[in-house]
Amino acid sequence: MDLRTAIAGALERLIHGGVADARLTAEVLLASAIGQERVYLFAHPEEELSEEAARTFRRYLGERLSGKPTQYILGRQEFYGRMFKVTPDVLIPRPETEHQVEVVMRRQPDARMVADIGCGSGAIGVSLKLERPEMRLLLTDISLAALAVARENAATLGAQVDFLCCDLGAPLAPATFDVVVSNPPYIPLDARDGLPREVRDHEPHVALFGSGQGSEIYRRLIADAERVLRVGGLLSVELGFQDVEAVRPMYSSDWRFLEMTQDLAGWPRVLSAFYHPRGAGL
After folding, report:
1. Does the pLDDT of residue 281 top 60, yes or no?
2. CATH number among 1.10.760.10, 3.40.50.150, 3.20.20.70, 3.40.50.720, domain 90-275
């Protein structure tokens, strides 16, 4: 079987199985099975598939048809121009989360101490460190398994960052940080059944679901940020697409210049604000 035939057969199976982006999925999985980039498939469509590569490709297809995301099958996902390891212990980094990196660099370019709370794979914190080497990054997560993945990504990409296993910012020292950035678990539990099976059945629930309506976790994040940020410090949080009206009123008059950043689809995605407690001046 040549590469062209392998793609055609896989495409038919994936379409029949209801897999989104079936052609792209087939090409990415086949390219990985033969140890090449996607462009190789277009340049060598007549190349015969080895038995070993064919077995690997069939396994990949079976996993994808069962609902397992391509990123977990291959164990990687690109974020901010770099390849990060991902496992079922961490959320798959999304393109919209890249706005977090951009917001921090734009709104607090001279920050020295930055906490990435709920770091998962480490995508935000590691990217910030590599983009701004002068920043000192502390990456926290409640999951030891997630922190292990983040540590590996930091080591592989050459980012010198620190790690701490904790619940949000509970143990962080007061008035220490210039920036707190977070992509917290914000999906309401009662929305679980409406999620795509790739998300619902494969991504870690501890990183997906907040309690109650999901938005309550922001109240805790804001309270932690008020304690650990220096005066003038920045809190930047990622939102679910329906969270903005629930979250905005959680900020007291101690916060200034709330700014909403939209993602490429036009949804409110990142809410950022500076901490200026009353009496501290502007």
Report:
1. no
2. 3.40.50.150
